[in-house]
Amino acid sequence: MGLVALAAGICCCTGTFSAIGEAWICSHAIDGIARNPEMYGKLRSTMILAVALDESTAIYALIVAILIIFVLPSMF
């Protein structure tokens, strides 16, 4: 069970890095809007798309962690 917990913990680290990536994306989008306010619509839509793609990584990591915890031990 120890290695299963370790593997699930490593998968959960992906969620942390995903949150850091989302913060970086939003920060740079806000900087771009502050420098060039007329590009608000285009930057906002690009930011939303980038955050959605980044969030999907965290969701996939969560699914893998759940599968590791509940499915993997029953296979052996």
From TrEMBL:
Marked site positions, Reversibly protonated during proton transport: E55
Gene3D superfamilies, per the entry: F1F0 ATP synthase subunit C
Subcellular location: Cell membrane; Membrane
Residue ranges crossing the lipid bilayer per the database entry: 47-72
Protein keywords: ATP synthesis, Cell membrane, CF(0), Hydrogen ion transport, Ion transport, Lipid-binding, Membrane, Transmembrane, Transmembrane helix, Transport
Span of domain V-ATPase proteolipid subunit C-like: 6-68
Family matches, as InterPro entries: ATP_synth_csu_bac/chlpt, ATP_synth_F0_csu, ATP_synth_F0_csu_DDCD_BS, ATP_synth_F0_csu_sf, ATPase_proteolipid_c-like_dom, F/V-ATP_Csub_sf
Pfam families (UniProt xref): ATP-synt_C (PF00137)
Gene Ontology cellular component terms for the protein in this record: plasma membrane; proton-transporting ATP synthase complex; proton-transporting two-sector ATPase complex, proton-transporting domain
Membrane topology: Multi-pass membrane protein
Gene Ontology MF terms: lipid binding; proton-transporting ATP synthase activity, rotational mechanism
Role this protein plays: Key component of the F(0) channel; it plays a direct role in translocation across the membrane. A homomeric c-ring of between 10-14 subunits forms the central stalk rotor element with the F(1) delta and epsilon subunits. F(1)F(0) ATP synthase produces ATP from ADP in the presence of a proton or sodium gradient. F-type ATPases consist of two structural domains, F(1) containing the extramembraneous catalytic core and F(0) containing the membrane proton channel, linked together by a central stalk and a peripheral stalk. During catalysis, ATP synthesis in the catalytic domain of F(1) is coupled via a rotary mechanism of the central stalk subunits to proton translocation.
NCBIfam families reported for this sequence: ATP_synt_c
Family, as annotated: Belongs to the ATPase C chain family.
Protein name (Swiss-Prot/TrEMBL): ATP synthase subunit c
Organism: Candidatus Alloenteromonas pullicola
Upper taxonomic lineage: Bacteria, Bacillati, Bacillota, Bacillota incertae sedis, Candidatus Alloenteromonas
